[in-house]
Amino acid sequence: MRLARCWQGLRTWLAWLNGDAAYRAYCRQHLHEHGAGCGHRLPTRAEFFRSEQDRRWSGIRRCC
Amino acid sequence: MQRQQLYAFHSQRGLGGPGMLLWLAVAIVGAAAVGGIALHRGESINSLWFIVAALCVYAIAYRFYSAFVATKVLLLDPTRATPAERLNDGRDFMPTNRWIVFGHHFAAIAGPGPLIGPTLAAQFGYLPGTLWILIGGVLGGCVQDFVILFFSIRRNGRSLGQMARDELGPVGGGAALLGVMTIMIILIAVLGIVVVNAMKHSPWATSTVAATIPIAVLIGLYMRNIRPGQVLEGTAIGVVLLLAAVVGGGWLDHQPALRGWFDYDGPTLALMIIAYGFCAAVLPVWLLLAPRDYLSTFMKIGTIGALAVAIVIIRPDIHMPAVTQFIDGTGPIFSGPLFPFVFITIACGAISGFHALISSGTTPKLIANEADARMIGYGGMMMESFVAIMAIVAACVLDPGVYFAINSPAAAVGKDAASAVATISGWGFPVTVAQMEALAREMGEATLFARTGGAPSLAVGMAHIFSAVSGGGLLALWYHFAIMFEALFILTTLDAGTRVARFMLQDLLGNFHAPLGRTSWYPSVLLTSALVVAAWGYFLYQGTLDPLGGINSMWPLFGIANQMLAAIALCVATTILVKSGRGRQAFITAAPLAWLVIVTSTAAWHKLFNDAPRIGFLAHASDLRQKLADGLLPPDAVASAPRLLFNDHLNATMTALFLVITWVVVFETARVCRRALRGGPLPPLTEAPYTRTELAVP
Hints:
The structure holds two protein chains of two kinds. Chain A is mostly helical. Chain A has helices spanning 2-18, 22-34, 45-56. Chain A has one domain. Chain A contains three helices and no strands. Chain B is mainly alpha-helical. Helix content of chain B is 72%, strand content 1%. Chain B has 28 helices and two strands. Chain B has helices spanning 3-11, 17-39, 48-74, 83-86, 98-109, 113-121, 126-154, 160-168, 170-199, 203-226, 231-253, 256-259, 266-282, 289-314, 338-346, 353-359, 372-396, 400-407, 410-413, 417-426, 433-443, 455-469, 475-509, 522-545, 551-579, 587-609, 617-630, 635-678, and strands at 45-46, 317-318. The longest helix of chain B has 44 residues, at 635-678. The model of chain B has no long low-confidence stretch (mean pLDDT 92).
């Protein structure tokens, strides 16, 4: 039971670390800010992922 | 909260009686371990001493010194809303769990530097490097990362360059920007040399590293088109393919018809890396750069964790002496005396200016509570310092004779195997040709003589450690796994660094001709990418032609540039402390700053004006010119002399540039601090106003 919880925790940590969880977080923030019937169209997971990749690599992200 | 309230808040978290006894025990064990390492003079010493010493030093430094910096100097305010909360856009700015931010931050700051630097610095013996990694880490590097992260949080996540411009004025800001650009060029070139030397005439290593490119492209396509956004899934597939590539490389190495396709000399490999760097810079990020980064992050964290566990399990003996005779500056791997070159060589393992760019980049925009800055900034650098300790252990478990045979260039020890072992044995580090041939066979390489750069010797050390844990054997597989692991994130740094330098150049050129500044205008992308790649490519190519292997002159240049950047970051931090009325506590950044300025300036002075041709660029040029005039050079050396002379002058110019940048920023800092203390006109502090957090306060 404890092992399963640890495994789940590790998976969640990795999902946050590599960006898997970013789309869910973005949608949550969007709904929090604008509400469900705001009229803004949320990007699909694929659209979000594409725009994120292009945007994230426009600055210093890796060190020596 | 007001300052007095903050003092009260933090003092409530003081130590009780039993806690104090525990910390006393940690201090005694730590002092015994450090004393044991420092005073031991036997044939070998167990690596467990290093692990215990490091863990105790980090624990005490974190518990007491970082707490002092957090509570008495910076006054972290857990009730203050961070930019992640105030500016939350669900993308750049987003309050994030502190363990996730820690993972992001560590993955970003941990590069090849803390692995390569300590491996090279083992030339002086295990002691100087180990002491500097521990002391420089907890008093310098950790403090720098922590304070820059904190100041960036207080300034809405501003970058180091922006903070330098805001707090020091346009001269200091401009010098800082120039410093970042130049370090990027030198960094990429020197890392390129490390990869080239690891792949030189090694079909197994070259084919494995080459396979990482199609694997990254495949994973990029998978994550873009087949399973969009499923990063964990894509990464897992990629890691399996990488491991298959290591095994496949071993098979290919035994196929006479195929191995010739991957057997190249240094200059040819350098040209290939230059071509690759250009392609990586102009291709869309999703195709190569991003998937390679996902893979390298995963491999980096996994392999470093596995190495730590393996060292603790097998506790290998260290065979390198505490101090070697090369502290006098006559070392074969790089030239220069212990002071200042051990500090320049260790670089990122103790303090790295590059970290300040990360601490003022993505990390401050993710921190949910200001109090987390201590764990992420100070703690993240402690982890990096521990990686450096593991690297020095992995290098020093080798017999010293083997270590020097792998890392010494042919020009320093002799071109053939017999003369190399004779020279190295003559230094008091016995090694035989048969021993080196057997080792090369075990590692699946044709030879391990003169494999300079640090990566091959580190890979041999790691292979021994991993092999011992896995029950012995498979040395060749572990060796090439280690090479692939090092090359993977070196190439990621190369890709990412080229792209960032391109953006900076576009930003600069945009001031003269607006379309050149547009990152989406393809002619500008091609032009600026070509200029950046040509700049580092020149140094890389010349490094592979250098009779001393390139690392000899380039690594010190990189070390000076890196420490210069750290000095700039500490200048910014000291200025902010003084301007905000905390001048009495500014010693936390001013003391490491003073040390770095002394070290950087002395090292630069040596590289410029030392009389020994092995150390000073100008002395080398003068010696070469004299030999040329006297007709003492063989015909091939005569042909390459003009190129070597030009390179000496170019390296000297770069060194002088780093020296000037450092001192310009130091003078600007002194000027602004003097005005702050005397009440003169100043650029105002740019801290964002206080807003109370609406998130839970820890």
